[in-house]
Amino acid sequence: MAKLRTGRQKFYNVFSYFYDFFIQIHSGHHQDETRRFLVDSAPIAGTTQVRILDICCGTGSVILSFAKKYPDALAIGYDFSAGMLQKAKEKDAAKTIRLVNGDAANLSFVDDCFDIVCCSHALYELKGQVRTEALREMKRVLKPEGQVLIMEHEVPRHPVVKVLFYVRMLMMGPTDAREFVKQGISPFTKIFPDVTLSHTPSGKSKLVICRKT
Ligand SMILES: C[S@@+](CC[C@H](N)C(=O)[O-])C[C@H]1O[C@@H](n2cnc3c(N)ncnc32)[C@H](O)[C@@H]1O
């Protein structure tokens, strides 16, 4: 993994100790809504031997929701922060998922092997080139008929939450992250031939659905 990223790994390792608490304050009950929206948008009901990969899975909330809804699926959470993965491992249903430590820009999986590749509220935190490489990697490991589901924040309307949001962006590199949020779906259409956009009912998050064929 590039040396450049080790500083960020350390940041996330520390963040892992209060990440779930932070999200509780930041998103409150909307975190359930966004998670449900993401999981329900995956077109896999009735499919057998489903394989789901959650890139930048953090403390595992999204991949655990997938595993709960699809107990027979192979559900993998992937993150470069050992601290975040440890917090995921400590959760009640952790035995229903697999956790893999690695860089989003260099996935340790063969081509065309996942039905669903998702990434929730993380892509805007990646630096420009890493983000592009991560999107290319998601496309590479996706089955031809599969879907990449990317959930991202909309800029919050509540003033306090908006300040928290911008503080977070500042920590991540303000220009790059803000540029990405403003660009809409163009970072995705540069890589995927088929991209659609929808919003959660509250309008707090957007879901970008990408297909490779
Ligand atoms: C804001 S958290 C999102 C966590 C989770 N997806 C969620 O919705 O709660 C961002 C996550 O991305 C991970 N991450 C950041 N850059 C990464 C990279 N280059 N490769 C793998 N994981 C990365 C961090 O460790 C962190 O867990």
Report on this structure.
By secondary structure, this protein is of the alpha/beta class. It has 9 helices and 7 strands; from the N terminus they run H-H-H-E-H-E-H-E-E-H-E-H-H-H-E-E. Helices cover 42% and strands 22% of the residues. Strands 3-2-1-4-5-7-6 form a 7-stranded mixed beta sheet. Helix 3 packs across helix 4 and helix 7 (159-172) packs across helix 8 (174-182). The longest helix has 14 residues, at 128-141. The structure holds S-adenosylmethionine. Residues 5, 8, 12, 56-58, 61-62, 79-81, 84, 103-105, 120-122, 125-126, 130 line the site of S-adenosylmethionine (SAM). S-adenosylmethionine binds at residues 5, 8, 12, 56-58, 61-62, 79-81, 84, 103-105, 120-122, 125-126, 130.
Count the DSSP helices: 9
Indicate the CATH architecture. 3-Layer(aba) Sandwich
Residue ranges: pLDDT <50 for 5 or more in a row?
none
CATH topology: Rossmann fold
Number of strands: 7
In helices, the fraction of residues equals: 40-55%
- The CATH C-level class name: Alpha Beta
Shape: globular
What separation lies between the terminal Cα atoms? 30 Å
